[in-house]
Structures are given as C-alpha cells and as structure tokens.
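Reviewers of the previous submission asked for a worked example of the structure-prediction workflow described in the proposal, so we include one complete record here. The input consisted solely of the amino acid sequence. No template or homolog information was supplied to the procedure at any stage.
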Amino acid sequence: ALREAGGWAGIGDRRACERSMARAQALFARGGSDADPEWMSFYGEAELEGLEAQCWSALGEWPRAVRHARRAAALQDPHFTRNTALYTAQLADDLARAGHPDESASAGSQALDLLREVRSSRIEGMLATTARVLLPHRRAAGVAAFLERHAASRR
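From that input alone, the workflow returned the following structure tokens.
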C-alpha cells in the first residue's frame, strides 16, 4: 500500500496518497502473519517511515517529509548501512527544501560518511540534488564544508 501511495504522490494525487498511506499504516499496525513472504521480515517501522518521507517529499510537504525521514534514520538498525544512508540523504534533501540549510548540510555530511561503507548511485544522486539546493547558502560554514566534501567525493 505504501508503494501505491508513492505512486499517487508521484503524480500529485494527495488524497489517493493519503488513503494508501492510511491503509499501509493500518496493515502495519496489525502486525505480521505466518502467511507473509520472507522478505516482509525486513519491513519494519524504519521502512514505513522512510517510504512515508518519500511520499511527503514528492508532494512538496517538506516539514512532514523531514519528520518521517528523521524517524526513519533514527529507527533504522545500524547494521543496514545502506538504508541508514538512504534515509539520512532523504533527510538532508528534505531539510534543504524546508529551509534548514545548516541542518541539511550536517545530515548530508553524515550520509557521505556512510557512503564510505557502501556504494549507491541512488544515494549519490540524492546528495548531488541536495548540494544543488544548498548552493545559494554556500557562505554558511557548515554548508560550505558539505559542498566541498561532496565535490571531493565525486572526483
């Protein structure tokens, strides 16, 4: 249901997205069952929060996206470095778009740290987008440091 919500968000249908998110939350609240496929064991609260963050981001609801991305990053088992990096990169972009450049730069730097352990062109692309959003704030020390690190990581 959350993948469906993401589809609705992608085409800008807020009402359908919210209905699908509500259905996903209700299904998640019921808990797992023996009939669930094995891959569902991976689907936890962090994944739910991360997918909701993506929906709100696609709808341009930056404060809501920030809230869910922050929870996703905090709830993610640190053993799954790629997912932690993904949620942290999502948080960085949402913060940048919500008008919090310093906090965005900090989250972006954390995502760059995590990318030392895993490779992901998707996450690298997300950070490149965040860097472009942050360019107008490059005079802020934290933003400048992130932009320099990001540029160095692409060489």
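The chain is about 70% helix and 0% strand. We consider this example representative of the routine output the project will generate in years two and three.
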